[in-house]
Design brief:
Elements (H helix, E strand, L loop, with lengths): L3 E5 L5 H13 L4 E5 L6 H10 L7 E6 L4 H9 L4 E5 L8 H8 L8 E2 L5 H13 L3 H37 L1
Parallel strand pairs: 1-2, 1-3, 3-4, 4-5
């Protein structure tokens, strides 16, 4: 049974939402992904959100741009954590989406990651689930240790080759 529901308002959000899915795959967390427009398909959206708990979802990751109502509406219906991903927009660069998601009324919180922050949404969902799953917590600790080792390796390389050679190797 899927533990995470991933929902986006448009297929144009797919590249960012896929980053959340890739992280969940890395941590071996089951998820279900779909596209639903809260504005264009309100009945379908309400049915999906109302059935999310029944489906076994423990967290929802919802991505939306512009008015970005999808994460907030999920939070209004779904009783467990919702993580919102504001999408970068051509008009206002995603600030419109960010403000729509973070400015929820008292009592209806949405955890919000950076604009286009799909990977961090996946990591946050994993961390939420890890509070009651010691095996997943172990995977997260290993992931964090690898991040630390990657930074240390980059610092060592910089010390060895100097910044000009390091920059050249990045191209």
């Amino acid at each position: 049974m899927a533990k995470v529901g991933i929902v986006m308002g448009s297929d144009s959000d797919m590249p960012i939402m896929a980053k959340a899915a890739e992280i969940l795959d890395k941590f071996k967390i089951e998820y279900e992904m779909t596209i639903i427009s809260a504005h264009r398909e309100p009945d379908i959206f309400f049915n999906w959100a109302k059935s999310a708990e029944e489906k076994g979802f423990q967290v929802i990751i919802a991505g939306a741009g512009k008015a970005a109502h999808l994460p907030g509406m999920c939070a209004a219906i779904f009783p467990m954590p919702v993580i919102g991903i504001p999408m970068k927009t051509s008009d206002l660069g995603g600030v419109d989406s960010l403000y729509s998601i973070v400015q929820m009324p008292s009592g209806i919180p949405v955890a919000t990651v950076a604009i286009n922050g799909g990977a961090n949404a996946g990591i946050l969902a994993a961390k939420i689930l890890a509070t009651s799953d010691p095996v997943l917590l172990g995977r997260l600790k290993e992931y964090s240790e690898k991040l630390k080792q990657d930074v240390a390796a980059k610092a060592e390389k910089l010390e060895q080759v100097g910044y000009e050679a390091y920059l050249a190797s990045m191209k």
